[in-house]
Amino acid sequence: MESRNFKLDTEWNIIHYPDKPSGFGIIIIGDDRHFVDEKSSFWTQNEGKAAMLTDLKKAGYTIFYSNLYRKNWGSRQAIEMAKSLYAHVIRNEIINEKVHIVAEGMGALVAGRLMQEMGEHIRSSTLINPILSLQSHLEQEKEHKFFYKKLVKELENSHQTERKPVMNEVLKRNEDIIQDINIPTKIIHILSSGRAYKQSTMLKQLSIKWQDKDMPVSISYMLPEKKQSLAKQIIRFLKENEQEL
User: Fold this and answer.
1) What is the CA radius of gyration of the chain?
2) Residue 171 DSSP symbol
3) What is the rounded CA–CA span in Å between residue 100 and residue 95?
4) Model confidence over 105-116: pLDDT tens digits?
5) Residues β-bridged to residue 16
6) Closest of 89, 85, 96 to residue 121, by C-alpha
7) 51 to each of 149, 155, 230, how far by Cα in Å?
8) pLDDT exceeds 60 at position 99
9) Between β-strands 25-29 and 99-104, what pairing exists: parallel, antiparallel or unpaired?
10) DSSP H or E segment with residue 15
């Protein structure tokens, strides 16, 4: 069996099986285009993501992920669903209890919470073009009125709030999500747009803070034309963090 789709509560999930399992697992937490339904997923439909899945499976990884309420923006509901998926997979599959996280964009908001709340079960974390601060992301989107309004609506829906004080609390909770962690973390920043260049400035500022705290966070910058080497770079990092079971 190559993969299976299954439902937990209201959400569809998928697990991909390698031909030669290494015993290690990866939980993927996708960006705002991410989805899983009863037959398919964004990662199987998107050419680049499908190629990465193939490379990760060839390296022996069991890969699993959830629909996570689609545009969840780091909501508590999405965090709890990710935890439920982890518990389900550990209960039903033969893999090491300490899993790797691979998260992209918005997915970093949930990944950051998982690192803080279930760190003993996380082996490493790879964040691709991560949103590390919801407040900063909102500020950037203000330049694009239509996208800003759309984003505010998505935040209200995912966090189930329209009241300003509550929204301020949501933004505060999702501010600088990588704090005081001891989990090896690799940030891969693909410089594909003006927005990506702006985010790289923020990353440089954060990296000084992480260095001062002696946190195990490294940053790689990548040009769009080098994206085909992304899976190789990720696999190398994962293998470095599998010396201890």
Assistant:
1) 17
2) H
3) 11
4) 999 999 999 999
5) 3, 63
6) 96
7) 34, 31, 10
8) yes
9) parallel
10) strand 11-16
